């Protein structure tokens, strides 16, 4: 309707309707007229021109108490809620102050204060100092006595706007900023918490806040010393405000800050951390703590981007002081930084390594961080083993890991086990035995702590499997090194663990991988003719024999006689003797033939605990029955061993066990025809020398037949 009206239409409407505002006109008609002109002003706002002053004159001079609310609504429309005061700039300030009591009486206080905020923001130059002074007084009065929260909040907004625009935004802003910094540094003001908090708030908002005053050209370095000084008040509210200010500064201008500013920022954060550490009332979940850690995270992001221009060392010192409540990623970066400084050319480097492992492995509970600490330890050891192996094991590894079997974290135990294994593999001094002692505790942990409760998953004994694999590697690699005690210790641990499996079969009943690995290792062991212990090379598969370790062979006659007596009984069970993957019957045949024919062995004179006057013939009576039992294994002997066997049996024809030898030769004549054909004349000649007795007659006739 109004958009189509020419410019003079507003004037004509005003001339026709202004009589409706006379006090004698009914209230309803007056209010209707105010509403009409409010709508007219909104619709024709850009075309009002000089008519704006007429409408303002109406609002100002119309003093009917009943019309305060509609007058205010017309003022809101005329000024765009306080933003535009063209044609009445000099009058609006005093009028609003004069009108303030009447407005509060009709319940329009919040809206009225909002108008004041816009007047100050957009027209501060037209508001006199006396008006501002009176406005501040009245606003403070409302803050203290109003029960309406929205009204109080709007009052605070008015005060904020007054200070930011009418004080800090003018030539007095520099002096005001200086005064607030003096307040922060003045020890006599420390009891007034709200004064200090307000000063911190306005200083930071003026310089780097969301509504910063552009005329104040000061760097953060000029005011941060005052923030640092005010922290001596030890008040949590003030510290929270300071921390919010620092967070705002870092978030908004972190890329622009230089080293002096960062130095002050970090000093302030250090002071706040010290307050948190000493003040029991400051909980880890408090707002101060939360804001502090958010700010540290922001600084870490700047460091990751390479855009942090302060002291990296001081940042990590901050993180270290509050590491128990820092995120895992932050602590991992800290550990990496600390590990880079643990090198022998730095003083007290071993003590620093000990402190790192103690704090982030022994005292820490988070798995990822503990594993990372062990990785650092492993890396330092691998780099410095040649010169400092003994010190590292004695001062760090053993003290920190000697009770690792009690750790409830399977992943940590597994990583620690691998570290100990790697260290023991390269260790060549007596410290290796200490490492093996710790591995022994880990190895037997399930058997000692599990009771008879079965282990159901391989994952539950991952650390035990790591130890078993490690001990096998230690044993097979140290076979060829001195001292041999390391390999022997590893072997005994494997044997002891295997025996424990059968003493408590229920524990590992469902998990067989460790038994399999140990048996696989033992079954691959070999011994040469000199009793040297050997093991196949992992790459070529060729058996390599140790020059230091020999297989223990018995020279006690009591033991050897028992074995010789029982072997023939065992030989009757071919399924037990012959394995799926091959057999070593030829080795047994060689050993037995040597006992009969090899005089260099000095048998039986070299044996211990033999009967008095124990002759060679008596010794052969124990060996020859075992040789005779080998005749049935002729198919597993090569021709050379077959001929040696026949010659030894032929030698036995003149012994006390000639009957068994003849029976064995009969089997050889039937089954080993090629070997027997070559030796038959010699055999027949020796048979002819045997005395004809009833005992030998039947076996002899069987052979000749």
List keywords for this structure.
3 strands, 66% helix, 2% strand, mainly alpha, 3-stranded antiparallel sheet, HEAT repeat-containing protein 1, ARM-type_fold, 32 helices, Tuberin/Ral-act_asu, 705 residues, Tuberin, GTPase activator activity
Overview of the structural elements:
- Helix content is 66%, strand content 2%.
- By secondary structure, it is mostly helical.
- Among the domains are: 167-326; 402-553; 555-704.
- Strands 1-2-3 form a three-stranded antiparallel β-sheet, with no helix packed on it.
- Helix 20 runs parallel beside helix 23.
- The model is unreliable at 1-5 (pLDDT under 50).
Short description:
With 705 residues, the protein is mainly α.
Taking pLDDT < 50 over at least 5 consecutive residues as the criterion, the unreliable ranges are 1-5
Q: Count the strands?
A: 3
Total helical elements? 32
What is the distance, rounded to the nearest whole angstrom, between the alpha carbons of the first and last residues?
144 Å
Radius of gyration: 51 Å
**Percentage of residues in strands:** under 5%
């Amino acid at each position: 309707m109004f958009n189509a009206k020419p410019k003079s239409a507003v004037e004509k409407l005003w001339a026709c309707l202004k009589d409706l505002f006379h006090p004698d006109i009914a209230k309803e008609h007056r209010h209707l007229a105010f509403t009409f002109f409010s709508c007219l002003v909104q619709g024709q706002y850009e075309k009002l021109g000089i008519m704006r002053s007429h409408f303002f004159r109406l609002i100002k001079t119309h003093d009917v108490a009943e019309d305060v609310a509609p007058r205010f609504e017309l003022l809101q429309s005329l000024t765009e809620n306080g933003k535009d005061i063209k044609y009445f700039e000099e009058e609006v300030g005093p009028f609003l102050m004069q009108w303030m009591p009447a407005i509060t009486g009709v319940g329009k206080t919040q809206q009225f204060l909002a108008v004041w905020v816009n007047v100050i923001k957009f027209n501060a130059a037209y508001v006199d100092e006396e008006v501002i002074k009176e406005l501040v007084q009245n606003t403070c009065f409302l803050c203290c006595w109003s029960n309406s929260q929205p009204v109080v909040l709007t009052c605070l907004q008015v005060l904020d706007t007054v200070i930011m625009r009418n004080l800090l935004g003018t030539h007095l802003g520099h002096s005001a900023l200086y005064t607030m910094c003096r307040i922060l540094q003045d020890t006599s003001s420390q009891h007034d918490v709200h004064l200090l908090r307000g000063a911190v708030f306005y200083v930071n908002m003026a310089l780097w806040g969301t509504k910063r005053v552009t005329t104040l050209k000061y760097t953060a370095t000029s005011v941060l010393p005052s923030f640092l000084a005010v922290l001596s008040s030890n008040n949590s509210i003030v510290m929270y405000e300071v921390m919010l200010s620092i967070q705002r500064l870092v978030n908004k201008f972190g890329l622009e800050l230089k080293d002096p500013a960062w130095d002050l920022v970090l000093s302030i954060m250090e002071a706040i951390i010290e307050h948190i550490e000493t003040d029991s009332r400051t909980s880890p979940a408090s707002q101060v703590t939360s804001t502090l850690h958010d700010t540290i995270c922001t600084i870490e992001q700047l460091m990751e981007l390479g855009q942090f221009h302060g002291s990296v060392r001081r940042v990590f010192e901050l993180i270290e002081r509050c590491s128990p409540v820092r995120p895992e990623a932050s602590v991992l970066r800290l550990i990496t930084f600390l590990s880079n400084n643990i090198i022998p050319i730095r003083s007290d480097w071993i003590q620093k390594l000990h402190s790192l492992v103690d704090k982030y492995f022994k005292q820490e509970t988070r798995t990822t961080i503990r594993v990372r600490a062990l990785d650092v330890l492993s890396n330092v050891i691998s780099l410095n083993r040649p010169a400092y192996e003994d010190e590292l094991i004695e001062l760090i590894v053993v003290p920190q890991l000697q009770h690792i079997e009690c750790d409830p974290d399977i992943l940590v135990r597994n990583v620690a086990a691998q570290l100990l294994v790697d260290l023991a593999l390269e260790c060549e001094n007596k410290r290796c035995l200490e490492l093996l002692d710790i591995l022994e505790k880990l190895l037997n942990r399930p058997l000692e702590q599990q009771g008879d409760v079965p282990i159901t998953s391989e994952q539950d004994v991952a650390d035990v499997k790591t130890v078993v694999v490690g001990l096998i590697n230690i044993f097979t690699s140290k076979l060829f090194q001195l001292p041999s005690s390391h390999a022997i210790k590893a072997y005994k641990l494997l044997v002891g663990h295997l025996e424990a499996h059968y003493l408590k079969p229920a524990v590992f009943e469902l998990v067989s991988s460790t038994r399999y690995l140990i048996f696989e290792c033992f079954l691959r062991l070999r011994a040469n003719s000199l009793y040297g212990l050997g093991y196949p090379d992992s790459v070529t598969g060729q058996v390599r024999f140790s020059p230091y370790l020999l297989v223990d062979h018995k020279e006690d006659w009591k033991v050897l006689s028992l074995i010789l007596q029982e072997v023939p009984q065992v030989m009757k069970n071919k399924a037990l003797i012959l394995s799926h993957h091959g057999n070593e019957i030829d080795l047994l045949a060689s050993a037995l033939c040597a006992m009969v024919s090899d005089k260099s062995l000095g048998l039986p004179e070299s044996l211990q605990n033999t009967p008095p006057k124990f002759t060679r013939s008596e010794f052969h009576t124990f060996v020859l029955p075992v040789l005779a039992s080998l005749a049935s294994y002729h198919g597993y002997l090569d021709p050379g061993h077959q001929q040696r066997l026949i010659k030894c049996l032929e030698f036995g024809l003149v012994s006390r066990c000639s009957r068994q030898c003849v029976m064995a030769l009969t089997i050889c004549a039937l089954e080993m025809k090629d070997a027997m054909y070559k030796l038959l004349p010699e055999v027949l000649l020796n048979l002819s020398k045997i005395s004809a007795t009833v005992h030998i007659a039947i076996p002899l006739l069987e052979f000749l037949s």
